[in-house]
Amino acid sequence: MLGRIAFFVSVVYVVLNTMLLRWAAEQLPFTFFDDEEHFNATLGNLLKPRYVGSPGHSEVRDFIEKELQSLDFTVQRFDFKEGANFSNLAGYWNKEAEHILMLTCHYDSRKPKEWDKDILLSATEGAVSCAILLNLAKTLGLFLAEKLSKKGGMGLALIFFDGHYPVTSDNEDEDELIGSSRFIEDDIIPLKKIALALTFSYIGAPNQTYYNYFEVSEDLHDLVTDIELDLRKSGQLTDCHVLFHKIKEFDNDLLDDHVLFHELGVPVMHVAPHEFPKVLYTAADNQENLHYPTIRNMIKIMRIFVYDFLEHWDSYISGNNNFVPYSDSDDN
Ligand SMILES: *[C@@H]1O[C@H](CO)[C@@H](O)[C@H](O)[C@H]1NC(C)=O
Ligand SMILES: *[C@@H]1O[C@H](CO)[C@@H](O)[C@H](O)[C@H]1NC(C)=O
Ligand SMILES: *[C@@H]1O[C@H](CO)[C@@H](O)[C@H](O)[C@H]1NC(C)=O
Predict the structure, then answer these.
(1) Same domain, residue pair 50 and 26
(2) Range of the domain at 252
(3) Nearest listed ligand to the Cα of residue 241
(4) In total, how many domains does the chain have?
(5) What is the pLDDT of residues 234-272, one digit of tens each?
(6) Does residue 99 surpass a pLDDT of 90?
(7) Ligand 2 atom closest to Cα of residue 81
(8) b/e map 299-320, b = 16+ CB within 10 Å
(9) Nearest atom within ligand 2 for CA of residue 85
(10) At 215, which CATH number?
(11) Could you give the CA distance from residue 300 to residue 241 in angstroms, rounded to a whole number?
(12) From the CA of 79, which ligand is nearest?
């Protein structure tokens, strides 16, 4: 009799344990691993003069395309002529999903003067932001393959815009956003599908702080600052000043591709410092002057944010907070 009871108890114990373990495994958030070697190698491939028409421009374009393919993204390249040959690049997971989280950067560099055309590596100008996008793609890889690809509703798009700068260098201070204008004109991703256009710009200089530039994504910006705080508390960040602050600067946003989407009513968020890097458009905008703690922490923070958005997008876009999804005013 006692033997039977003991047997019964141990069976119950094993069954309960198995159930508990399963439950724990399902609840456990994904564990992500850094891959700074990948970041460094990627940045190495981007850090070259890459103004429109230069050999570096097509090398970088081809590199990004190959890299996205090797990370199992569905890749599209859109070539177009507008006084020069431009190419936008797009990499997708769940391309056909009803909603798309779009991460963007621009990969071309500003056309230099004749004398400095071989020395401007334009690191914070865009290379670091694009390397961060590719590193997010790499280190989120397992999650994208195992989880995101099994859900239909939300997709991820990484967009590498060309043509941030005009073809000539006469108008030094003019950003033309040729690539993103064309992307919108050609309806590459219908605006209604874009749950959020998140643009990365001018990242990598020392002392940068990141503010909230758009009311529409205020909750998401606050979430990013909370993620940074949590990671810092649990000792997961490199020792460094605080990057994200819940400070609103709605009229002090640096111009980049997201602005065009914002003007058309797409929810946008801009991960950008509140002032330009001091080294911008100089030969000192190189790897030596990058601030690695900022870059390391930025990747860790934004990886959790992207993961969280892809996992919980339905609560973000169902109106449980301020976040207002895209609505075409013509529909009303
Ligand atoms: C990446 O490059 C930075 C700057 O050169 C260096 O400090 C860091 O150790 C490198 N990381 C790895 C993993 O090689
Ligand atoms: C654009 O590319 C074509 C080849 O595809 C080349 O013949 C042409 O010269 C290029 N145009 C410019 C402005 O570089
Ligand atoms: C960054 O801030 C510290 C402290 O405020 C200052 O000493 C340092 O010169 C700043 N560095 C740059 C590159 O601005």
Answers:
(1) no
(2) 33-331
(3) 3
(4) 2
(5) 999 999 999 999 999 999 999 999 999 999 999 999 999
(6) yes
(7) 1
(8) bbbbbbbbbbbbbebeebbeee
(9) 1
(10) 3.40.630.10
(11) 15
(12) 2
Same structural domain, 126 and 169: yes
Domain identity same for 18 and 52? no
- In this prediction, residue 112 has a pLDDT band, given cuts at 50, 70 and 90, of confident
Contacts of 84 (CB under 8 A, 6+ apart): 52, 53, 167
N-term to C-term CA, the chain: 75
Mutate which of 207, 208, 292 for ligand 3 pocket (most atoms within 8 A of beta carbon): 207
> Torsion over CA of 154, 270, 161 and 66, rounded to 10 degrees?
-60
Distance from Cα 245 to the centre of ligand 3, integer Å? 18
Tell whether the model's pLDDT for residue 175 goes beyond 80: no
Q: Residue 86 CA: which ligand is closest? A: 2
**Residues above pLDDT 70, as percent of the chain:** 88
Ligand 3 binding pocket includes 18 (Cβ within 6 Å): no
pLDDT of residue 332: 33
SS3 324: coil
pLDDT(173) > 60: no
Q: pTM value?
A: 0.88
Same domain, 96 and 64: yes
> Which two three-digit tokens encode residue 241?
């000043």
Mean pLDDT of 34-46: 98
